[in-house]
Amino acid sequence: MTKLSVNINKIATLRNARGGNMPNLLKVAEDVQKFGAQGITIHPRPDERHIRYKDAYDLKPIVKTEYNIEGNPIDSFMKMVLEIKPEQVTLVPDAVDAITSNAGWDTLKNKDFLIEIISELKRNEIRTSIFVDPVKKMIEGAAKTGTDRIELYTEEFAKQYALSNKEAIKPYTDCAILANELNLGINAGHDLSLENIKFFKENIPNLLEVSIGHALICEALYDGLEVVISGYLEKLG
Ligand SMILES: CC(=O)[C@@H](O)[C@H](O)COP(=O)(O)O
Ligand SMILES: NCC(=O)COP(=O)(O)O
């Protein structure tokens, strides 16, 4: 089974546009779970332009499924996740001013740093995942960091799929086979959508979890969160 974790960053973006509490992020998180999503993902950024650190704390008692917090493990991020203790922390090597995530870890160059951060998270009984490009030597490097899982960075797949280039799945499938051999759990995310998710899932052996935000919220503008979430669950089932 592949779990659907809904990234609610965009709900916070909309709320922040007017400075009030509409839409209510906590209510949306409750409803998303009620509609069947098996997790909630947030990716707070240092400028707090969407999810704020306070939201991350407020969400803790609301998330009854799996709480996944993503981000660059700068000091303020680590302090926060060690206090909140979500089920999973996904490490992403974002630049401070990145518009969105745009690269996976170089797991070779950052090996010692990742080992240190991952050990600290695991000492606190938090499952770890690290965001990686579909490049075999980066998967091999990931296995040496001690991480529980990898998150395959799927932007390039999504871009090529939209151009009908289905061959673009190959590096993802190859890396997934390797990750399975190395006993790494496999998550995936970035630009996954109702259009491309079924094909992606069918080609990734043992895909444990996808985190989806941007497309899912855009799709929900037309069809509503409940219908869209059940659409994903059907395709992931
Ligand atoms: C790691 C990843 O792909 C997502 O977390 C994405 O970066 C969401 O962040 P934004 O909502 O800031 O684009
Ligand atoms: N980890 C990926 C994520 O949380 C959502 O990415 P996107 O669907 O907003 O591109």
Structure description:
Catalyzes the complicated ring closure reaction between the two acyclic compounds 1-deoxy-D-xylulose-5-phosphate (DXP) and 3-amino-2-oxopropyl phosphate (1-amino-acetone-3-phosphate or AAP) to form pyridoxine 5'-phosphate (PNP) and inorganic phosphate. The active site is at 43 (proton acceptor), 70 (proton acceptor), 190 (proton donor). Pathway: Cofactor biosynthesis; pyridoxine 5'-phosphate biosynthesis; pyridoxine 5'-phosphate from D-erythrose 4-phosphate: step 5/5. The chain is of the alpha/beta class. It has a single domain, classed as Aldolase class I (TIM Barrel, Alpha-Beta Barrel), CATH 3.20.20. It contains eleven helices and eight strands. The chain has helices spanning 9-16, 25-34, 53-59, 75-84, 111-123, 136-143, 155-162, 170-181, 197-202, 214-223, 225-236, and strands at 3-7, 39-42, 66-71, 88-91, 127-132, 149-153, 185-189, 207-212. Strands 1-2-3-4-5-6-7-8 form an eight-stranded parallel barrel, surrounded by six helices. Strand 7 (185-189), helix 9 and strand 8 (207-212) form a beta-alpha-beta unit. Helix 6 packs parallel to helix 8 and helix 10 crosses helix 11 (225-236). The longest helix is centred in the middle third of the chain and has 13 residues, at 111-123. The radius of gyration is 17 Å and the shape is globular. The mean pLDDT is 97. It binds 1-deoxy-D-xylulose-5-phosphate and ligand LD2JLWAY. Ligand LD2JLWAY binds at residues 7, 41, 43, 70, 151, 189-192, 211-215. Residues 7, 41, 43, 70, 151, 189-192, 211-215 line the site of the ligand NCC(=O)COP(=O)(O)O.
